[in-house]
Amino acid sequence: KILVAYQGVPGAYSEAAALEAYPTCEPRPCEQFEDAFESTEQFSTDRAVLPFENSLGGSIHRNYDLVLTHRLHIVGEVYFKVRHCLLALPGQEKSALTRALSHPQALSQCDGYLTRLGVVKEEFDDTAGAAAHIQREGLFGHAAIASRRAAELYGMHVYDEDIQDDESNVTRFLALAREPLPPREGVPYKTSIVCSLREGSGALFKALSCFALRDINLTKVESRPMRWNPVSGSRKDGSGGMQFMYLFYVDFDASMADENAQNALRHLQEQTTFFRVLGSYPADDSTLPA
After folding, report:
1. Which residues are tagged catalytic?
2. Which residues form the ACT domain (predicted)?
């Protein structure tokens, strides 16, 4: 049985995503995203399953930053449908609820519902953790935005279900491991890379053409300021000529074993100042190989 690290407490959506990815695994909760990365790096767990983007809230930038500072490889992805519930201690009316606690992403995903409910939104580290906190402290008048499983684990009543503002609320989780995944025949693959480009006119166009010329489909392109060299071209007095330096995160439909993809990446590296393959893995495979 493999051990899979996730961020949060039992009942968190990340725990459910870990079990969807590895149905026979033993999930191991971690307090912070960094702890899940370190747990896998230090052999305390075999995998980490963490959220990287959501269809409503966008990218979880912290994890995109962390994947650069840790030597783990992406070995799979899971698209997990999030179904938020309004949980509170039993024995009270929904109209008596005045505050809603949850992770900032969950609060933003239910913003319209909570505004209509007329409650104060209060950020918490974790969805299920908010439910556990309310139960532990006996906080009447407080609600948590969390999963139905969290309600069952912490003795909460489900006052409302599917309260997210958009029914197509899906989170993309990535599975991380110490070693890259060997390619498999007959399985559609994705590859994730990150790079920075040499400065010059049309630099991004030229980089993307490496894939377009070979009919390789890109599924994600996102830029982030380069944390270790965020600004270039500034004068000593700090005036004029200043601009951000960016990293580009790119996902594309191909395996690293594909010759066409290898040629595209060789072409791309001629135009980069930094380049790293984050992983090559089965696309949207809900049951990942151990």
Report:
1. 171, 173
2. 192-282
Here the tokens at position 194 are 């990150």
How far is CA 50 from its chain centroid?
Answer: 5
Distance CA 275, CA 39 (A): 26
Mind giving me the DSSP string for 228-277? TS-EES--TTS-SS-EE-EEEEEEESS-TT-HHHHHHHHHHHTTEEEEEE
Average pLDDT, the chain: 91
DSSP state of 151: H
- List the one residue out of 184, 138, 171, 144 whose CA is nearest residue 281: 184
Confidence of residue 57 (pLDDT cuts 50, 70, 90): confident
194 and 276, same structural domain? yes
Q: What dihedral do alpha carbons 145, 148, 149, 153 form, nearest 10°?
A: 70
User: In this structure, are 254 and 121 located in the same domain?
Assistant: no
**Residue keyed to tokens 């993309």:** 172
Checking if the pLDDT of 232 tops 90, the result is no
Residue 256's pLDDT is 93
Which pLDDT band holds residue 236 (cuts at 50, 70, 90)? very low
Closest by Cα among 14, 54, 68 to 249 = 68
pLDDT in tens, 174-227: 999 999 988 888 889 999 999 999 988 899 999 999 999 999 999 999 999 887
Torsion of CA 58, 272, 183, 213, to 10 degrees: 90
Structure tokens at 19: 């079990």
Same domain, 45 and 89: no
